Amino acid sequence: MVDKKIGIDDLIEIVAQGGKVKTGIDVYDKSGILLLERDVLVDKIKILEIIKANGIESLPLSAGGDSGIWDANGKLIGGSGTGTEDNSGKNREKPKPLSGIKSGEIEKKLYKIKELKKIALEKYNASKNKIKKVLGDIKETGGEFDYDDVEEQVSNLVEFLTVTDNSFSYLTKEILSYDDYLYNHSVNVCAIGTAIINKFNSSFSLLINDHLNAGIKNQPDLFKDQKNSKKNSYKCFMKDELLDIATGFFLHDLGKVLVPDKVLNKAGRLTDEEFEIVKKHSYEFGPEIMEKNKIKNSMINNIVKNHHAGLYEKEERCYPNNTLPDDIPTYVKICKFADIYDAMTSKRCYKEAFNQISVVTDIFRKYAGKDILLQHILYAFVKSIGIYPPGSIIFLRNGQMAYVLESNGPIVIPFTDSDGNRLTSKSDPVDINSPDIDELLKPDGRRSVKTPMEVYGLLPSYLKGPVEKTVDQ
């Protein structure tokens, strides 16, 4: 339900003066591309300017209690929220239990999550060992590795990622406990990129097919037998192509093995000369290794060479700089998003991991409004990432921690109180995106999603699985 709309120019003026706004409702452009998510608290004018550039002159505000416009002092001046935008309060009512989910169903969901995490861990470690061997072989032989062995491993990984809903999240959310960044990064980019390319392939293909089917109605009699039946005759990428693309994701950074370790793992800021060496991993070292192994696949070579190329004109710190954004294939652009996301959400020797939710928002804001195809890639990226994956731990705005049972919602099981103490009794599942849920019982976007291992001591016994160990522990 929407009670009113606010002019975009008025909102830009309010935010420019230090105010904030949250619509409480998703905002789309005329093509159905998501421009602003309902729960995003807008405190910078850039996203509003992007929305305005898409021809939107006013924004809707939800009347369901989850929207608001605040001035620079945090005072509510519009919308249906209450109080200020400060979400630090703790003395709020408990979430209402979710009706329709029985205890037995909860146990089944928890068991399924635990089993998937076991399988995912096996797949992850097998893939990690494979890229470790690849890079080791390249160093030892001066550039050669067993490509067929890599393709077989990627095929096994892709099969798991394709048949299991949101499965890549079970792989990637453990990265904070690992030290071997390059190996994990290769697996994570393959997993994240595969999820995005699959989502893009289905959504974009559906869009094209809808367009083709709509056109049939206005065509001459030669299409008369097709006018009353929907035809899905177009698919952006075929199965074999998707495997080639996933293999490219897996190998995208193999050129880094030729970058000196003291440069690659430097704790401080790189000098200009050092950065020039690092840049060569994509457009020089990577292609050299591909050529030495006689790998002629154009998709894999494109990914290795161009995964740092600019996606719009004058994008900074991109390379090689002799490639136009329009000449970068869709699957390479997807690799870049997966690469950026994983790099920013990973802990490195020179930085802490960034908040996953903030990273998704930052990527969306940076690349939104550049071109139509990029919007479809962004849509697939946001929909695929699964900010709240099943089996992960999130913070609510009142300070409670909750276990994610389903990412659609998300539906969660709170297991601590607002002070972080473990609850003494078992909680019912809660849909924290329900319209009647208190604002402070929604996910806290300022705090990172956790893995169960990071808060293992606080988990009640019914949420604990077996202690997971990597091959390196």
Provide a descriptive summary of the structure in words.
The longest helix is centred in the first third of the chain and has 39 residues, at 103-141. Strands 8-9-10-11 form a 4-stranded antiparallel beta sheet, with helices on one face. The protein starts with a strand and ends in a 42-residue tail after the last strand. Mean pLDDT is 82; it is low at 82-93, 172-178 and 466-473. It is an alpha+beta fold and 473 residues long. It contains 13 helices and 11 strands. The protein has 3 domains: 2-78, no CATH class; 113-385, Hypothetical protein af1432; 389-463. Helices cover 43% and strands 8% of the residues. Strand 3 (27-28) and strand 4 form a beta hairpin. Helix 6 (181-216) packs antiparallel against helix 7 (239-251).
Keywords:
alpha+beta, 4-stranded antiparallel sheet, disordered C terminus, 43% helix, 13 helices, 11 strands, Hypothetical protein af1432, single chain, 3-stranded antiparallel sheet, 473 residues, 3 domains, globular
Structure summary:
The chain has helices at 8-16, 45-53, 103-141, 147-163, 168-172, 181-216, 239-251, 261-264, 272-292, 298-306, 330-344, 356-367, 372-385; strands at 2-7, 20-22, 27-28, 34-36, 58-62, 68-70, 76-78, 393-395, 401-406, 411-414, 430-431. With 473 residues, the chain is of the alpha+beta class. It folds into 3 domains: 2-78, no CATH class; 113-385, Hypothetical protein af1432; 389-463.
